[in-house]
What we know:
The complex is a heterodimer.
Chain A: H1 4-16, H2 18-53, E1 60-65, E2 83-84, H3 85-94, E3 99-114, E4 117-126, H4 130-133, E5 137-141, H5 146-150, E6 155-159, H6 160-167, E7 176-179, E8 182-191, E9 202-205, H7 206-212, E10 218-219, E11 221-226, H8 232-249, E12 260-264, H9 265-308, H10 310-318, H11 323-356, E13 361-362, E14 365-366, H12 372-398, H13 402-406
Parallel strand pairs in A: 4-9, 6-8
Antiparallel strand pairs in A: 1-11, 1-12, 2-10, 3-4, 3-7, 3-11, 5-8, 6-9, 7-8, 13-14
Chain B: E1 2-13, E2 16-28, E3 33-37, H1 44-51, E4 59-64, E5 67-68, H2 74-84, E6 85-88, H3 100-110, H4 115-128, H5 144-157, E7 162-166, H6 174-189, E8 193-197, H7 201-204, E9 209-214, E10 217-223
Parallel strand pairs in B: 3-8, 3-9, 6-7, 7-8
Antiparallel strand pairs in B: 1-2, 1-4, 4-5, 9-10
Amino acid sequence: xxxxxxxxxxxxxxxxxxxxxxxxxxxxxxxxxxxxxxxxxxxxxxxxxxxxxxxxxxxxxxxxxxxxxxxxxxxxxxxxxxxxxxxxxxxxxxxxxxxxxxxxxxxxxxxxxxxxxxxxxxxxxxxxxxxxxxxxxxxxxxxxxxxxxxxxxxxxxxxxxxxxxxxxxxxxxxxxxxxxxxxxxxxxxxxxxxxxxxxxxxxxxxxxxxxxxxxxxxxxxxxxxxxxxxxxxxxxxxxxxxxxxxxxxxxxxxxxxxxxxxxxxxxxxxxxxxxxxxxxxxxxxxxxxxxxxxxxxxxxxxxxxxxxxxxxxxxxxxxxxxxxxxxxxxxxxxxxxxxxxxxxxxxxxxxxxxxxxxxxxxxxxxxxxxxxxxxxxxxxxxxxxxxxxxxxxxxxxxxxxxxxxxxxx
Amino acid sequence: xxxxxxxxxxxxxxxxxxxxxxxxxxxxxxxxxxxxxxxxxxxxxxxxxxxxxxxxxxxxxxxxxxxxxxxxxxxxxxxxxxxxxxxxxxxxxxxxxxxxxxxxxxxxxxxxxxxxxxxxxxxxxxxxxxxxxxxxxxxxxxxxxxxxxxxxxxxxxxxxxxxxxxxxxxxxxxxxxxxxxxxxxxxxxxxxxxxxxxxxxxxxxxxxxxxxxxxxxxxxxxxxxxxxxxxxx
Lengths: 409, 233
């Protein structure tokens, strides 16, 4: 295989038959080009979907209270369920091994003012751990901590857009802004990969807001992340246990879907992963079918070539070429052409992707790219394709009877 | 050198079978130059194909340089052809995308001779046939006579025991034919065994022995006074 003479023969043949070689290679190069583009597109879609979700930690569970839809345990349907600090503590203590971080969420709105600028923004009262659950990235200053929380400090972490709106070019960190007339010290600014709306938001300690709103202990939602080592099955199992516990505690019928809702990211994420997996599978199948067409094309041209070279193979055999040597020659030639043209297709696809890829940035489709695993797979496919395409013609060539090949009739 | 005993060969033609060789007995010593003559259908090509191991006989014995040639698989046949035989064809059968030198070197390639030695040997044989200056030319750049001389050089490159020439002058005009025969005679003078299949009387008479085939049997086998081709060149 690494015989210099064989390669010289192959290069010779290729050089003498440029058009034929080009036509042969084109079909496979084209197929690989499509394969890579398809996979990259699916990859881009996947990136798009995941990008919309990676705003939050993917092992998040939300417990959302609602209104019961079934009578249960002596209560009528239509009862509004409310969660409070005790529920949160109860959950935290019930699942010490399952829960990684847990935080309450208290929603409200505020009119914020700094000097002459005002604006209305949603405020969320949360625990310090919420930073990790929501993957909030603080770009300046800091998030509030346990001390702020215990002291019910009037501190706030504001979104980047809020900072721009209210403070303009001033650095907000350390300054005081009025939220519904009460002074809050801005201690940090955050950014969010999700979208602009997420950056028009204000976070403050849950305890502070509970005190401000009449010493309540109500929370609107419990957000938690489970043990990150859990796989999907374990995660789903945990969220079910959680749901049963919460329903029992709030006396909600186990069949009631609206009284308490435990929403697990894993489920949604699982749906999306299976969706992109199916897309990817379709992409691969389609590309493979095209590749098969390419291989048949090469095989076809090789058969024709063999026919054209029948006499040559006859002469070679008369001069002492063994059948194996003929097979090698044809196989190497077809593999070489397939691999080379496949790489050209691959390179072409790669160039196009790196030129236009970074410019595509829509929610559903972002940075399509070729992974190195794709390249390696494609290479292996190419070599196999080359062998397959050349195999039948090669055997045919090796079986050429010199006597038939050399007859002048 | 060549020993053939009671060789039979028939071809299936649909439901009929055509008996082409009906018991050939033939021997050739080392250094002989034998013409095999016969009209078309006499079986001379079939005999040559069997001698050249391109085709197998149905029955009979064939010994080449005391090696029995029987039931060869493709690989073995290829090996024997390479070692024992050099072919010269009517239509030259040079590989058209290889230079004269590469064509001559091809049998040596299949003998796994290393590249440098191969080139040297090939050049030596090209020189013997007077085409050293044409070594880098493609067959398409050569005249018919030159092509046949390259083919002869190629047949000799592997230093075979026997040269088999199938109508070597069939595609050439008479002057060129004599030049080629002159070359074949000189190669024979050097001690090589050569079998020439031809249907041309004058060519046959430039050999040392004529074997006549008719309807699958040898009807005549005589030694003759060789006509030297050099006088016509």
